[in-house]
Fold this sequence. Notes:
With 489 residues, this protein is an alpha/beta fold.
Amino acid sequence: MVSRVIPVDPFDLVIFGGTGDLARRKILPGLFRRFCSGQMPPQARIIGAARTDLDAAGYREMVSEAIAEFGGAFTCEDQTLEAFLNQVDYLAIDARGETGWEALQDKMKGTDRIEAYYFSVSPSLFGDLAERLQKWGMADAQARIVVEKPFGRDLETARSLNATLAKYFNEDQIYRIDPSLGKETVQNLMAVRFGNLLFEPLWNAQYVDHIQITVAETVGVGGRGEYYDTSGAMRDMVQNHLMQLLCLIAMEPPARFDPDAVRDEKLKVIRALDPLEAHHIVRGQYQAVPMDEVENPGYRSAVGDARSRTESFIALKTHLSNWRWAGTPFYLRTGKRMSARSSEITVVFKETPHSIFAEDAGRHPNVLSIRLQPNEGITLGVTIKEPGPGGMRLIDVPLDMTFAEALGDDGTDQVDAYERLIMDVIRGNQTLFMRGDEVEAAWAWTDPIIQGWTARADVPKPYDSGSDGPGDADEMLRRDGRAWREVKP
Ligand code: NAP
């Protein structure tokens, strides 16, 4: 099924950090794909900006290489690549100095297009960029800024960053990006919940036994070791990504599918989270397995600190103190170097109150699994009779909808999260971006936990690379008579 593409209005997108890793791997190839699909109008301009001294031709060459390297299986005619590159420009600009700003002002002057400024640079430069955009007259009412994660490293820094940006831009001009929210399946989560009568009546503590959210990676910290070691899984994944998924799965139906209605409901979820208890958290750190230390070093070797106490894995149990979810545990888990790359949300329903099938002693809760990656899709486990003679023995079978099979022949029709979110910025739709108060509420929940670890000099439990975290994470669920879902590729 080919999706319907609605072109966006003409825009100018300035990518600060246009020569960086994120721009080359995600933003530029994504824009090219939107161009090829007909969504990007011919008047649109993309202006890369960084300190590196390049002219437009040099930057176009870099963009073309980035598309070749990171554009994926997607192909487009050469002629089209040239047409796309003609819409790409570059300016050497220093976020902390005055170089290049006048030239940018000249380029942006007198256009009535949508103006978007993507801050794909270190967060330490966000304030400088905002300030200079205002100083050079570009922070006008039609300007939008896109800020990358991480948004702060605790409540205090997030507040301060929000306050800095608020000096120059209104909240409705600020797009705090979390790519996980741009995934097709994440949006489908809302469509499934609020577009079907089937699930919503059961979506509460009365019928749901528990909910699991797993985001497992097979990669280690790689080249990001230095940064990651100052962050850890709680800051890098739980505070934003997992918390956002939790919000979408647990929130009340918003009155309308509009940005503030959705974000109001998400905020209520974060504020309803109980404070975490220390014995409901397991921290882990991956270690190398014998014979594989060179190829896949353990966490401490990878970050170059033999005594690092930063966690690369976290599993936790939490509750929401509200009418809908009182008593239903939410189990969240994320880690690096786990057995498979997989992101999945699982809603485990309660069992039927009474079994009429005497021959069957098994447990058969319905399980709804929403796979975010890979093989995005939804599976509902239903219980049926085992075929053949032998009485009423029951088995669980999956009703499976893999989106690539159901919606597109090979999945290439699916839009990458960054592409979708950038087009949302151009359309002025903030639904899938985090609002300032949401980010602060999320930090307010995680801060005391992180402070507790620091105060206690807590040391994460080691786990083997390729496993699914320390045994204590399994034990935490076993104590509750439950088990984690298998991490499947
Ligand atoms: P990066 O590869 O280090 O790139 C940084 C970019 O900023 C470069 O283009 C650099 O170019 C430019 N820059 C540095 N100082 C500057 C200055 N004073 N004025 C103007 N430009 C300056 O970083 P990245 O990995 O692309 O990450 C960018 C942002 O995205 C960060 O906030 C990061 O946390 C976030 N992020 C990245 C990823 C990822 O996969 N890479 C994922 C999630 C979030 P010059 O040196 O030429 O100035």
